[in-house]
Every structure is written in structure tokens, then in C-alpha cells.
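Go through this:
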Amino acid sequence: MKYITKKERNSFLAGLAGQNLVYCMIGASFFTYFMTDIAMFPPAVVTVLLLLMKIWDGVNDPLIGAMVDRHRFKSGEKLRPLLKYTPVPVGVFTVLLFIVFSTKESLLWLRISYFVIMYLCWDITYTLQDVAIWGTTAVISPDSGDRDKFVQLARTVGSIFYGVFSAVVPMVMESIAKISGNSLQLMTFVFAVIFGLGGALISAKCYKAQERVRLVKASQQQTSLSECFKLLFQNKMLLLITLASLLGSFAFGNNLITYFFKYMYPDNYFGGFIGALGITTIYSALTYAPSFLGMIFAEKLKKLCRGYRNVIILIQVCTIIGKVVAFLIGYEGKNMIIGIAIMAVLSIPSGASSIAQTALFCDSVDYMEWKTGKRTEGVTFAMQTFFTKVSSGITGGLATLSLGLIGYKAVADVPGAVFYGTQSATFETWIWPLVMLTPAVAALLFIIPLLFIKYTPEQKAQVEKELQQRREAAEATE
């Protein structure tokens, strides 16, 4: 890389790994399972909570992004200082969020109030950190070749840690609880301290990254929140990617796989030491592990498909084929193994998804500077944080809503509890189609907005060239 040092790169990647240790507790389907089967909130309550939380995100994230774009620290930086000050509060609120002080129905209102307050505090601090982390990928180098390589590394490392830990942590937590006889409530708190607070402290290493692309003239800085939001709505590429991601959140069947294994498979399937969370981990590992190849070869996929937009479309097509075929094969006996094998092969390109989306966000920041003279890293990457959290909220909300509609009633996870065969006939009829077909429908919807993005490799090169000329001319007149 021309600008980014090895030490700087490694420190940022280590910090990113720490951030994903935090998010593996909240961003994956385990968070929904925590609310329904560990905190014992009724499914209807969880649906409402997730909806309200994401409405909050819809206001909070773009507002924080706009504030970041308007503010400069004394050093002239707008992102890097946030990487220094946000880790500790993120870690503390992560731990507090997972405290379950009671499951009594009479205290439900108090438990809900506490949960909402802790989530709001966590969300504000996490958004500030996340905007700063991913905004840094757009300003760490003025060279798009450097930037794309850095984004590929960052997304690969982040995805590996998030994928591995979001799958393994619940499995290990559940197994320790079963072996030791402790409750999942206690084990969740212990793991929140280890991964929530510990991961947040590690994430402070992102502070080593430098801001190399800065505004040369004060006139290039946004002067009001209204201007920030005006620029946001002028960024067509950003809005189309965000819309596609929101439509992709209808893949709520991915959040139901744990419930499927918990109630549709015998309790002693793996000798009683591995429960539904553990089986879900095995399933996730088999179906998603091949996607790491897609991360490694993301650059080659970009060249083959002539741009990252087409890479994302390819990923969605593979998802549709894999899920539909697996559904038609079914899950009885060896059919489940065959279906998993098919989904595993077709998941290979999906590893490039987060790399492709982040690269497109960076391109949109350059495009907006070329078009308007303003850089919008804050509001742009706030939108990335926004759609990530809103998508997970919609997915979780639709999952719990569907559970209520098919007659689901949680069975407390206590020693000796039996889960297999305890759900209604409606649940047993619909759980498999929901698990497999909703991701296929969501992938189809995801493709539609992407078809309207028109940003060719040739146009990208021209934009980068003209921006470099403008910066050099502006520096010469200062």
C-alpha cells in the first residue's frame, strides 16, 4: 500500500476484531433468542421492542452521522478521536444490557424499562464508534487502490471474527451451562463481561489509524444539520444500497433456525451436551464457512463481474438457488446433509458481500465530493450502521411475529427440560418453509434496487482523477 503502514493496518484490524467480539453478542440471532428464551420476554413484547428500537435507530444513526460531519476536533480530525473515547462506554453498556435480574411476570414492566434504557445508551455509544471505524476506511488513504485493499482486509477480518464468535459463543455458553448446572442467564452475563467489555477495550486499537483525506478549505464543511441531510438524499448510490439492505432484512427465517433445531430435533441428538444453540453453530459453520473463500477472492470477483455491484447481485442469485433447492429436498434423514452441502457451495461468493458494500459506500463518498465539493463520511457510514441495525431489528421482529402467528410458546431452558414435540402442529408445519424460503424471497427483493445503480469502473477512475487534481490545486492556493 502507498500510504498505509503495516503497523497502522495491523492495529486497526486488531481493534476491528475487538469491536466484532462486542457485536457478536447483539448483532446475531442469539440476541432475539436471549430476549425470548433467556430474559423470557413474551414474543409479542419482543416484536414491539425490536420495532421501537429500530425506529430509534432510524432517528439516532443519521443524526449522529450528521453531527460527526459537522464537527472537527482541535487536531483537524473528525473521526479518529472518537476511536479513543468510545470503547469504554460501549463495553460497560454491553455488560449492563445482558443483566437479567428477574423473570417474574409481575416485574415485566420494570425489566422492559431497564432493557430499553440500557439499549438506548449502548446504541448511542456504539453508533459513534462504528461511524468512526468505518468512516476511517474512506479517509485512511487518498488512493482508491489502497482503500479497496484496506476495506477487503478490514471486512475479511471483521467478518471472520463476527462469524466465528457469533456462532461459537452461544454454543460454548450453552455447553458450559449444561455441564456446570448454571443458568443461561448467569452464563450470558459472564460472557458479556468477557466479550462485551473485553472486546470493547481491544477495539481502542483502531485509534492508531490516520486520517489522510481531510477538507482543505473550511467552505467544504457542512454548516448545518439540514445541509447534511440534504446531501444524504442527493447520494443516490447510498440510498439504493440502503434500500436493498432493508429489503434483504425480510430474510427472517435465518433467525428461526435455533427454534427449528430446539423443537424439531430430539433433545439427546448429540448426547445431551449440545443443545439447539450448539446445533445451530454446527449448521452455520457448515453452510457459511466456505464464504471465507469469497472474502479472499473478492478482488477477483470484482474484476470478473465488472464491479462490486454485480458481485452483490451474483451473491443474491446464489442464495435464492441454494435456499429453494434445500427446501425442496427437505430435512428428513440424510436430506438435511445434502441441503447443507448445496447451500455451502453456493455460499462461497457471499463472503465478498460486506467488502462490496463498504467499497460502494466509499465510492459514494468520493462521488459526492466530486459532485458537491462536500465529503460525507459521517452520515454515509452512519447509514451503514443504521441499515445494519435496522435490518437486524426488522429480521428479529418479523421472526418473533411469525413465531406468535404459528403458535409458538417458549419452554424454559432448565436442567431436565424436554423440548422435542412440545410445539403445536401449526409450528411444525410452517417452521421449515419460514427458515428456508424467506431468505430466498429477501434475496430477490435485494437485487431490484441494485439494478438502478449506474457507476462504471471507468466513471470511478475519472472521479478519482479529478478529485486528486482539485485537492492539489486547493493545497497550492492555501
Notes: The chain is about 75% helix and 0% strand. The chain has one domain: 6-204+224-477. The mean pLDDT is 83.
